[in-house]
Amino acid sequence: MMRLCTGDTQRFIAKCMPADCQDNMGAAERRWAAIYAANSTSSMYKIILKHIPKGFSILEMGCSAGNLQHDNMLMGVDMSFPALTYAKRKSPNVRYVLADISQGRFSTHDVVVALNMLDVVEPHVLLKSMISHATRYIVLSDPYDYSRGESTVKTPMDSITIREHIQHLGFQISDDTAQPSFVPWEIRINSRTSVRYLVDIIVAKRV
Questions:
Q1: CATH number at residue 176
Q2: Which end of the chain is more exposed for a tag (fewer CB within 10 A), N or C?
Q3: 78-121: pLDDT as tens digits
Q4: Angstrom distance (rounded) from CA 118 to CA 127
């Protein structure tokens, strides 16, 4: 599932898009897939890669255009076919699955990653899916931006409540992500427009 920009920013960007992108969800989805694919060099991905434990198999939920590149990435799941097309071009050896992460059942992996997904999937549903597929670690990042109008999740979690929930589910937060972080994530839309978030990174180990 691709993470779309929210609130006033999304409405502003929609006005900048061609008319067919506003009227045709397929066209809009293809455009967003291209935007995310073009932002694959964001420093946020490099920072997150440093937090992923070495030597373990990885499943990414909501992988979008496959910007998180790792030698041990074995599977990516997303609901956007255009995004998965970009992902497959980047990493032909990775298995990509078109599916809803909240409903599908996939093979288990040592590490399950979900980047910036908490505003598009109910946090408790996302965490339940992550822990049911992770044998060792889960890795999350999010800016906690829940301003999506009617499509906003019903039970949002902030940097404190999500850590508490993760620990309640039987995972221990790593020492270096025990406190909320503010990692810059910039999405460049075009030469004149970009969106900037500050994301929180959490790494937790099954105990």
A1: 3.40.50.150
A2: C
A3: 999 999 999 999 999 999 999 999 888 899 999 999 999 998 89
A4: 9
